[in-house]
């Protein structure tokens, strides 16, 4: 396997930091589910939702930068030469698809519920749609399932990058 370029340490740091961000956003969203299932009051549930929305909006540039930088790493030869590289490429594309889906559906889920997008009381992005339950309900389910898959796929992407780095 000589001649195969291994991922740089910077690639690994980006993969690790991005995976940590994805996992943190997932856990932040799980607080909503815990608030609902724990029979907490309406105010606690609403606070958990708006905290997740705020952090989702604030972290969107970081999530997109992570996806872009991981795709840039995908162009290096270590992702293209063997079975592990091909599997790593599939995992990476699945991760990028999940992240883009989450970034796009997050605001739409809020807007189609009929709410403006409030970001920590710093600014508000008004809803362009108003309440649309026929769109909101299936999109929310898709957003939740993509969010549940994203930390696993980010972890697999990091593991594939580490394995490529450790190969001889």
Keywords:
168 residues, mainly alpha, 4 helices, 2 strands, elongated, membrane, transmembrane
Walkthrough of the structure:
It is a single chain. This protein is mostly helical and 168 residues long. The protein has a domain at 9-99 and 150-166. It is built from four helices and two strands, in the order H-H-H-E-E-H. Strands 1-2 form a two-stranded antiparallel ribbon. The longest helix is centred in the last third of the chain and has 34 residues, at 133-166. It is elongated, with a radius of gyration of 18 Å. The mean pLDDT is 83.
Gist?
The chain has helices at residues 9-37, 42-74, 83-112, 133-166; strands spanning 117-119, 123-125.
Let me know the number of strands.
2
SS content category: mainly alpha
* First-to-last CA distance: 7 Å
Instruction: Round the Cα radius of gyration to an integer and report it.
Output: 18 Å
Helix content: over 70%
Secondary structure blueprint with pairings:
Elements: H1 9-37, H2 42-74, H3 83-112, E1 117-119, E2 123-125, H4 133-166
Antiparallel strand pairs: 1-2
């Amino acid at each position: 396997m000589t001649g195969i370029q291994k991922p740089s340490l910077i690639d690994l740091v980006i993969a690790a930091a991005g995976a940590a961000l994805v996992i943190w956003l997932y856990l932040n969203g799980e607080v909503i589910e815990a608030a609902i299932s724990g029979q907490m009051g309406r105010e606690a549930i609403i606070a958990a939702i708006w905290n997740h929305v705020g952090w989702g909006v604030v972290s969107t540039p970081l999530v997109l930068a992570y996806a872009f930088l991981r795709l840039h790493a995908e162009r290096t030869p270590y992702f293209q030469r063997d079975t592990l590289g091909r599997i790593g490429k599939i995992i990476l594309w699945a991760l990028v698809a999940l992240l883009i889906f989450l970034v796009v559906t997050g605001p739409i889920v809020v807007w189609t519920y009929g709410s403006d997008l409030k970001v920590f009381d710093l600014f508000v992005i008004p809803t362009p749609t108003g309440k649309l339950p026929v769109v909101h309900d299936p999109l929310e389910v898709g957003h939740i399932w993509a969010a549940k898959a994203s930390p696993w796929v980010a972890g697999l992407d990091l593991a594939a990058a580490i394995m490529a780095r450790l190969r001889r």
